[in-house]
Structure formats: C-alpha cells, structure tokens
Amino acid sequence: MARIGVQTSTVKGAFAQLGPYEALRRIAGLGYRSVELSQVPMTTENVAEVRRALDDHGIQVAALSAMVTAPPGLATDTLTQNFDKIVADCRTLGTSMVRIGMLPLDALVTPGGVAGFAATATTYAERLAAEGIELYYHNHHVEFARVEGRSILEVIAEEAPGLGLELDVHWVHRGGHDPVGTLRRYAGRARLVHLKDYRIGPLDPTSLDLLAAGDAAGFQAAFYGVVQFAEVGEGTLPWREIVDTALAGGAEHLLVEQDDTYGRDPFDSLAMSRDHLQELGYGHLF
Asked: Do 167 and 195 touch, CB atoms closer than 8 A?
C-alpha cells in the first residue's frame, strides 16, 4: 500500500540540533511512518541512530539521497565516490530506493551536459539494479527549460529509460506545467512523489519604501519574491486530483516537503499538511 511520509529536508534543522533519533521520534509523533532521508549527513553514527529510531518508532525509509558528483565544499554521499557505502546504507535501513536530488549544475550550462548526465545516471541505475536497488531523479523547475525542442526533463526521461522519476508537484507547477498532467504522463515511472504546495504570498509593505527611495531593483526583488512554498492545502494546487493521479500511476511514497516555512515551526507545518490530507480522506495512507 502507498504511504504518505516526510522528506526530511523540511526538518533538517532538527536533525542537526536534536539528532536523528529525536527528530524521527517527533516525526512519528505527528503520525508519519515513512521518511525520505535528505540533507542528513550519513555518518556511521547517524545511520545507527536512524536505524534505532526505525525500530523504536515503526518508521520506514522510503529512499536515500545521493548525488552523482558533489560541488566543492558540500559533504554528501556521491555515486562516484561512495557507491558501496550507499548500497550498504540501503541494506542497513531497509530501503531499495535511492534518489538523485539534482543533476550537476554544470550539466545545465554545458553543451551535451544533460545527455551526459543521462548516460552517467543510466550506468549507476544499472549498477544499483544489480544490487536490487532502484535509482530515481527528482525534478526542480529548471528541468522544464527547453533544449533543442525538448525539456531537460524529457531528455533525462527519454535518454535514461532505466531511471525512475521522483516528481515534485510544486516544482512542476513553478516550471509552468500541470502537475496532474505530468503525473499522468509519467504514470508507472514515478513511484516517489513530493507533496509541496505553491502559493502567492502578500507583498511586503516595506517594498513600497524601497520604491519610494528609488530602489527599483529592491522593489522588483520583493515583487517577484511573493512566490512561496506552502503547507499542503495552504496554497493553490489541486490536492485531491494530485494524490489520486499519483496513486493511480503507481506511486508508493508520497512525501510531504516544504523548503521554507517562513518562520513557522517546520513540525507545525508538517502537522498542517497532515491535517489537510486527512481531511481529504487519505488518513489510511499515514
């Protein structure tokens, strides 16, 4: 049965301040029983704490996160440097899914870079498949830029057919596409879906002071910055259609995520998203 869970980047501060065990205890206390681990350093100690929390609180790991390569200064597991460790962590934490959160940024601006990434991802997808692990790719909005008549997401999907897709409905919408239609298009391939709302927030009154002071650039930044992440149900996305379409397309893990909660406690935001999804009749998926 499909399950609604949490993308841990939403509460990454709690993982850093409280430790994985306590952060996962609080997630379980909200009624979530599934997590996708992201922006949590996968040290030996943290992996052991996650494993202890899974056992004590009845949580499962939907997927681990990895990059193909990491930019300088970013400490994260990569498929090029930590392949065996990633496989071992999957075994320890009982998951058979790994997701790539973003393609290398230089691939976006290098001729042939996207196709090169697709080829590399295919190689790692095949290697992981031999270990019984599936590899997925998570989109942002930039994957809807078009290159020679195709979007970047289309290039990745078509040229890396062994790569699953983790569709993030907020970023699909921000990229100018219909989340429901995109879920239908990739039905059977998107077993991981991010539930993240999209809203237009109020214009900050202080932006008018910037305009009055002649700071047109500052005003424009505030004007265009009203696009916000939102708790599920607090924005504009059609959640019943999204969840029903995702489930019909074979999604197994629907993961609540919010990149910024704008001063609200992230755990309160997770509770708000949970409440809305339960009100829509999806309580059985928790």
From this structure: no
Find the mean pLDDT for residues 148-171.
Answer: 96
Residue 115 and residue 74 in contact, taking contact as beta carbons nearer than 8 Å: no
Please tell me the distance from the alpha carbon of residue 259 to that of residue 55, in angstroms, as a whole number: 28
Reply yes or no on whether the pLDDT at 74 is more than 80.
Answer: no
Q: Are 152 and 114 in contact (CB under 8 A)?
A: yes
- Average pLDDT (108-114) is 90
Residue 21's pLDDT band (cuts 50, 70, 90): very high
- Using CA atoms, how far residue 97 sits from 18, 174, 214, in Å, is 26, 26, 52
Query: 237: Cβ–Cβ under 8 A, 6 or more apart, which residues?
Result: 169, 170, 173, 179, 197, 198
Report domain extents, the chain.
Answer: 3-196+232-285
**The CATH homologous superfamily of the domain defined by 3-196+232-285:** Divalent-metal-dependent TIM barrel enzymes (3.20.20.150)
